Amino acid sequence: MNETSEAELLTKAKIVLDRNDRKLWTVPASDLYPHQWLWDSCFIAIGLRHLSVERAQTEILSLLRGQWTNGMLPNIVFSPQHSRRERELWRSYLSPYAPRNPYTSGLTQPPMVAEAVVRIGKKMNLPERRSWYAKVYPHLIRYHEWIYAERDPHQEGLALLLHPYESGLDNSPPWISELRKHSMPWWVSLIEKIHLDTLVNHFRRDTRHVPPGERMSNIEALAYWAALLRLRRKAYNSEAILSRSLFAVEDLAFNCILIRANACLKEIADTIGKPLPESQMTNMSRTMAALEQLWDEDTGQYYSRSFASHKLIEEPTIATLLPLYAGCISAQRVARLVELLNKPRFFRSNWPAPSVPVSSPHFDPIKYWQGPTWVNVNWLIIDGLRRNGLYPEAEKLRQKTLALVVKSGMNEYFNPLTGQPAGAANFSWTASLTIDLLKQG
Ligand code: GLC
Question: Ligand 1 centroid vs 44 CA: distance in angstroms?
């Protein structure tokens, strides 16, 4: 890419971020997503730091306003103007730990926040960085402690998730197949059987903004709603939820991000001269070691695992490449993953990397997390390739990702076969990570 087109792309990305700026935070996309989302804001801050360190800090501090008193960081902090409907949907006020103001959801999302904090810190001189880290460290340590206390009850090292929304890859095949097998309420199956699912359209907001073929199906949406009711009934108390049903997934992507987040947390603690507590150091090494249990030698892939049965959920997805980002796997495994990235009809496609292998029976090039290419996932893979010293591979994917955005705009996701844009237009993390990828050149 030449300098002029880089400058044009940068300007376009800035315009998207300004348009989605709500002063304290940046919305993912103005109509479809009017609130603040946890991992979105982390990716947004990673790009924003190149434009304004202060704005990037505000993005993170604003997320922290939503922290629960038990340490959880919720996946959504609601905008006061749009929260009436959400309030009744989520009812997080049922939990004694939820803040009353701002109003939030009741579950979490991949813990990208320590990475965002460190990246912002890299833009500061040492005294500034120390004071930035010191300000956010108490929040981050409480969040990581919450993850281990509530979501790793048997101290296995792998955090469990209670709802697919927590994975960030909402309708990814492993979650859909687990839900279908173990947690599909009878009334959802009945609605599916008698083809009444079109009625759900009346209640869905997302399909008013994006063509239904690009979103999750009505049955998936209903099953997710039912899964949310299960959490709401128990006031989002993990122990109480698990005591009724063991439907939970040790999600691969989440745990890879957690491994990296733990390393970032340690970097933050070391920089401010406050060594991490022993318990956190133990958790950190336990998670790194436990990643090995998610590897399947026969198929040469990593998978998510069912919490109850300890069986791997053998549905291939792009998450199999995220151990690269975790940064703690052997050179041999790294080579196997790179083979998958380059394998035709797998992750190799005209516009990589598809969220589900092209040859998978679940693959649909425009359906949300069941096929499209997402810029945040590419960013994680690029970072992972670099972390493992694979600079030419990383550069190839970086160039391809930028070319995709030049061709099709700053959409939420893209068709990996044709490069056509899909989902919401003017999507914030696509814009912010485009800026970050440009700055890596
Ligand atoms: C969708 C995505 C999720 C994202 C949210 C806001 O739910 O699946 O990852 O955080 O939208 O952009």
Answer: 13
Atom number in ligand 1 closest to CA 109:
10
Q: Is 220 a catalytic residue?
A: no
Q: How far is the CA of 78 from the centre of ligand 1 (A)?
A: 14
- The pLDDT, as a whole number, for residue 282 is 98
Nearest Cα neighbor of 112 from 256, 248, 236, 251 is 256
pLDDT at 208: 84
- Ligand 1 center to 168 CA (angstroms): 6
Report mean pLDDT in 10-residue bins for the chain, 441 residues: 90 98 97 95 98 98 98 97 87 97 97 98 98 98 98 97 97 93 83 81 82 88 90 96 91 98 98 96 98 97 96 98 98 98 96 98 97 98 98 98 98 98 98 97 79
Ligand 1 interacting residues, C-beta cut-off 6 A: 28, 33, 37, 39-40, 168, 170
CATH code for the structural domain at 3-440? 1.50.10.10
C-alpha 423 – ligand 1 centre gap (Å) = 11
Q: Which among 165, 170, 411 is the best mutation to test ligand 1's pocket, defined by most ligand atoms within 8 Å of the CB?
A: 170
Q: Is 156 annotated in the active site?
A: no
- Identify the active-site residue in 86, 220, 383, 412: 412
Q: Which of 243, 261, 245, 244 minimizes the C-alpha distance to 253?
A: 261
Return the residue whose CA atom lies nearest to atom 5 of ligand 1.
Answer: 37
Ligand 1: atom nearest CA of 75 is 10
Please provide residue 102's backbone torsions phi and psi, each rounded to the nearest 5 degrees: -75, 160
Catalytic residue among 166, 170, 220, 436, which? 170
Predicted pLDDT of residue 216 = 87
> Are the beta carbons of 77 and 25 closer than 8 angstroms?
yes
Atom of ligand 1 nearest to the CA of 424: 12
Give the nearest ligand 1 atom to 39 CA.
Answer: 10
CB 347 within 8 A of CB 322: no
pLDDT value of position 218:
87
Phi and psi angles of residue 312, each rounded to the nearest 5 degrees, phi first: -70, 145
